[in-house]
Amino acid sequence: MARHAENQNWKLVASDLEDLIGYNLKRAYVIVRADFREALGDDGMSARVFSALSLAVEFPNITQSELARMMGIERSGLVSIVDELEQRGFLNRVAVPGDRRVQALVPTQEGRFACVEALKAVRAHEDALLDVMTAKEKETLLKLLKKIRMRGEG
Amino acid sequence: MARHAENQNWKLVASDLEDLIGYNLKRAYVIVRADFREALGDDGMSARVFSALSLAVEFPNITQSELARMMGIERSGLVSIVDELEQRGFLNRVAVPGDRRVQALVPTQEGRFACVEALKAVRAHEDALLDVMTAKEKETLLKLLKKIRMRGEG
DNA sequence: TATTGTTATACTCTATAACTATA
DNA sequence: TATAGTTATAGAGTATAACAATA
Q: What are phi and psi of A3, to 5 degrees?
């Protein structure tokens, strides 16, 4: 059976995948994700660990619950991430006087340094990957992605 | 310790996550993915199953290896996807005369119908989610995402 | 030798539910 | 009752490596 099917339904489908924002978003994300991994190397931080470290550096003394909320994941999922960051010596869980339930995440000097170095590497890789785009285009892309985020993250 | 740390490293980090294309891509993708799942309901197809069906409908008689290549995943990963589509009655594995290794993927009438219906639902949801963007902006976003894809899928 | 489909296996990311210790 | 951190567990999604059948 060739493309001239009995009904015309296939016409509504043909290549319409290519017009979906979601499909293109995923395909592009997969590429940038692979680039990210290459940037930080085989024993480098994963994207989520790097994100957690970045936010912990940006907001020192943040709690795990706050950080999870900020990252859009569950509290429970953050435990292993913080475990890894602590094992790498990039931050410490520190008791907070006044509320013995919470533990503040305090980045170490080494953690701040590693964060900056990782960011440099990721930026360099991203710049190389996206050298087909102009600065203006990248800015536009960022703006549009943030528009989607604003819609979904409220 | 407040933000005026001993060194100025934090300044290079603060909120720089927000300027990375990769980070924004992922955050936006997570939102659109959740929207997709909602569009197709609890017992609906997953994104990858829907993608496979769409491509099988668009390219009838495609082989699994070709489809996997097209989707950017491994052959082995496609087996369970095609299993599910066959169980749902959306396509059939059909022997190909001339090469007994390959099995052509032939969508059923029901499969083509389901594909169109799913696409309508996904489109409607995507339109509602992205109603904060103009048609022009969506077009621009698609163009820029495809630019990244061209770079990585080249 | 190379390719197609397949199985087995493992790893990453994430969610849910329940637990503990606090509040 | 509610919250913070934790554990156990399960489910997607994907990759790698090997295999049998076929080319």
A: -70, -20
Side chain identity at B95, as an amino acid letter? A
Distance A74 CA to C16 C1' (A): 10
Query: How many of the other CB atoms lie within 10 Å of CB of B2?
Result: 6
Q: Which numeric CATH code is attached to B43-153?
A: 1.10.10.10
Tokens of A98: 């006044």
pTM for this structure? 0.90
Would you give the DSSP letter of residue B3?
S
Distance CA B125, CA A10 (A): 21
Which residues numbered 68-107 in chain A sit less than 7 A from strand C, measured from CB?
Answer: 72-74, 76-77, 80, 98-101
Q: Which residue of B has its CA nearest to A7?
A: B109
Instruction: Label residue B15 by pLDDT band (50, 70, 90).
Output: low
CA angle A64, A70, A72 (to 5 degrees): 100
Mean pLDDT of A93-109: 97
Alpha carbon B9 to its chain centroid, in Å, reads 38
Q: Which nucleotide is nearest to A51 (CA to C1')?
A: C13
What's chain B's average pLDDT?
91
The CATH architecture of the domain made up of A13-153 is Orthogonal Bundle (1.10)
How far apart, in whole angstroms, are the C-alpha atoms of residue A147 and residue A151?
Answer: 6
Q: DSSP string covering A47-84, please?
A: HHHHHHHHHHHHSTTEEHHHHHHHHTS-HHHHHHHHHH
d(CA B29, CA A51): 16
Closest CA to B18 of A60, A51, A38: A51
Report angle CA A33, A37, A43 to the nearest 5 degrees: 155
pLDDT at B99 over 90: yes
- The Cα B10–Cα B33 span in angstroms is 33
List chain B domain ranges: 43-153
Residue that has been written with the tokens 């339904």 in this structure: A9
